[in-house]
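quick one, two chains, predict together pls
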Amino acid sequence: MPVTRGFHRRRPEPERGRLPPGQYDTGSSWPVLSAEATPQKSEESWTFGIDGLVESPHTWTWQELHALPGSTYFGDIHCVTTWSKLDTTFSGVSVDDLLEVAKPDTSAAYVMAHSVTGYTTNLPLADVTGGRAWVVWSFDGKPLPRQHGGPLRLLVPHLYFWKSAKWLSRLELMTEDRPGFWEQNGYHDRGDPWREQRYQGDD
Amino acid sequence: MAAWSDGRIIEKDQPTASTVRLRLHVDERPHHLPGQHYILRLRAPDGYTAQRSYSLASDSDDPLLELLIERQPDGEVSEFLADVAEVGDVLELRGPIGRWFVWDTKSRVLCVVGGTGVVPAVAMARTARRLGRTDLLRIAAVGRSPDELPYALELERYGATLAFTRADVGDRPAGPFAAEELAPLLEDVDLGYVCGSARFASYAEDLLVASGLDPAAIRVERFGPTGD
């Protein structure tokens, strides 16, 4: 690959191993990217459910979610458009705790996250279990802003951020994988930022 | 998905004070749809790279790829492209990317776009002109002033409805679009395409929904920081 004439690193070299390949630190800003109109549905009427291949499909109201044991993620997030935001704090509940109520069938291997807008994104079940995924409603101690997916979004910070569906309404457990919204529109099926799995055909 | 290829800058100019326009040649470039984008990557001698996505302004039949880059304060890539890159330089490109914010050239659509968010609408307009189907594509574009809106003249010639938030133009006082300005453009429209900053996109989405467009018929491309 050719060196670009006259181009030099301008940002300080990041802490070793902190940024996945091709990413930059966006600092205090938080870019907004979305493909659909931001929904206006109120918090009070928001529900979240788990269904599909589970023993006990369950729907939580906004109040019921808040009554669950809380869980917080401290760490970095990575967007496929190449920004990373370091040292974020998101709070909500762990997906493990929600799945414990719904009891996935042993044949369930994938999850489809659904938003109220109709947005979807697919994930291996293994990527949303084991303390690696949350359903969150707060950022830095404040309610998660609408444009960033509030009142409720999925958080799967070890994958590119399109997997962390905004305006989350349900998780559907599935036996077989099927592509979600961006996955049908040219993006990678799994989206691991450390392997730079941005688009179909990567890796 | 296309691999990386080399793109040579054939033309470079600064259509507005804050933007730079690049036209690039890529060997054996694949066909693209209006609304798709490319990734542009810069590589330093030490191997460090920086990459950003830019919407295409060019139609697929254009022999060159056209990108419009907005200069960002401290923008590592945009300032390089504005101040250092020259005609003849070679950059790495990858694309086309995206299958959502694209016009299929068959649906009746209205683009509500602001600032550099006009770029995908310019590509759609060029494609509509080539196909002789300008009846299918309407454009409403917002800028601060005619001098600051990229492609303002081309959009005007296309028949786009323009609004300027900081300049009185003709008998239209400065200000964003009002619902009654968009209403006639929304007649018989299948889809609305919104492109612009986060602030602009929120405003445009609300306006389209208030004007009766189904939220499920709105496709959005937002960019930039939130400012909060």
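The first strand of chain B starts at residue 5 and ends at 13.
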